Amino acid sequence: MDPAVIGYGAFAAVIVLLALRVPIAFALAGVASLGTLLIFATRTGDLMLERAIRPTTSLVFSNSFDLIHSYDLSMIPLFVALGHIAYRAEITTRIYHAARVWLAPVPGGVAMASVVGCGGFSAITGSSIACASTMGRICAPEMLRMGYDKRLATASVAAGGTLGSLIPPSVLFIIYGIFTETSISALFLAGILPGILSLAGFLLVIFVWVSRDPAAAPRYTDAISFAEKREAALGAWPAVLLFVIIVGGIYGGIFTATEAAAICVSAAVLIGFLQRRLSLRGLWAAVRETCLQTTAIFLIAAAAKIFVAFIALTGVAGDIVGAVQAAELSPVLLLTAIALIYLVLGMFLDPIGIMVLTLPLMVPLVETYGFDLIWFGVVVIKLLEIGLITPPVGLNVFVIAGVVGREVGIDRIFSGILRFLSVDVIVLILIMAFPILSLLIPGSM
């Protein structure tokens, strides 16, 4: 049997399994293992399964073993732990509190504070789903209680939660860097300007929304003294310190991304205990949650590595690159096609599943056109970020819907999301049209 036919069939099978909500790790590893077995068993034309068992097990175990022992992968549990510890030490929530105090008098200020809080939370945790879940519990109920438009109250947090994909540190950037063998430190720095641009765009959406419909965001009438503002701003210093360690240390060449993560975890624990906001019970809970989340990510990464090796065995990537070259597509048409593929997949699949499914094909393709893989990484993460709030799946939307319960229907949240999606598309076009937005900071290292 032609290996390429097996490869195309494997892609179709994985997409179907993921659409049926089969866990990503099981779908990728299962299909890749079965496909590899078929390739080795039919090499001579006859089906001889007993001859294919040893090479198949060798490929599966060697690739998963090599990945799990990768040095770069060690930063994932560190950054995941940092997010959980910072949350339990109230480091992340105090970012929102500071933004809340300073922006409350501004029309739509609480919604803006929610987006800023999501950006600050993302700058420490690196997880969009965790950001939407945590900030949703804090921000959305408060805005609903204040009389905010239900669409604005929920959509602002759902959209703000996506910033965790782009603002460093980002788990998606780590996975992308490992599978494309690009510098994770450079990817972190490349996401800063696009992340800030996205955050500014969300704030602009809220400002225009409230300007056109003042009833959507009732004004905050209580007076806030300068002393209260100063106290709230000073209370956010731990979050600022951690972000400076991560970004400043990497940019200055002082730390690698892994070293910065380890230092920040130690600093977060120390700050939490010194401020008496973190207990031993809270630390243990954070460690337990970190172990569970890291195990899931590692299983997905190991399965993806097996799938990548299988795709290399089939030669599918070479066939697609050859077909695109023969079609003589312009760079603009190629990028448009790639964007459409990611946007369509984002309507049905989760970000990690999309990434590990498409990278084996996309990376050889963009390398053929001479695109910078750091810049392309930012484009991919931005596309995945858009997928988090794109109907009908929109994982962040479902997270927020779970937080607010029956008070706000999913259809109402999606109707509010459309305004933020328009800004996301504009930012995406800017990133694709002007690579300097992504490459300026890493290029100046």
From TrEMBL:
Pfam families: DctM (PF06808). Keywords: Cell inner membrane, Cell membrane, Membrane, Transmembrane, Transmembrane helix, Transport. GO terms for cellular component: plasma membrane. PANTHER family: C4-DICARBOXYLATE TRAP TRANSPORTER LARGE PERMEASE PROTEIN DCTM, SIALIC ACID TRAP TRANSPORTER PERMEASE PROTEIN SIAT-RELATED. It comes from the Bacteria. GO terms for molecular function: transmembrane transporter activity. NCBIfam families: dctM. This is TRAP transporter large permease protein.
